[in-house]
Design a protein that fits this description.
mainly alpha; about 120 residues; elongated
Length: about 120
Amino acid sequence: MTPERQRPWRRTWPSGTQFLRVGVFFVVLLSPVAAQDIRGLEVCTAEKQMERRTGCLQSNIEFLQQALVKLARETQDKMTTANRDLAAARAEIATLKSTVNKLADELTQLKAKPEPNSKK
C-alpha cells in the first residue's frame, strides 16, 4: 500500500500559490481601502422609518446608476479613441511595409546590375 492509502486523513501541504492567494485575500480584506465610503452614497441603516429608509435606498440606486452610465460613456469614448488610433497605426504600418518592399525590390535590382566602371 502506498502512504496515501494508509493515511487518507492526512493532508498534503498547500502549494505556494495557495498561500499567496490566501495572503492576498487577507491583505485586501484588512486594507483600509475596503472600508472607505463611496462619495455620494448615504448611510440608510441609520434611518428608523421605513419610508425614509426606502427613499434613501432609492437615492443611492439612482446615484449608482448615474455613476455607471457616466463610466460606461467614458469607457466607450476611450475605446473609440483607441480604435481610431489603432486604425491609423495599421494604415501607417501598411504604408511602411509597402515602402520597405519597394526599397527591397530596388536593392535586388541594383545588386543584379553589373557595375559599368568595372574592368574586365
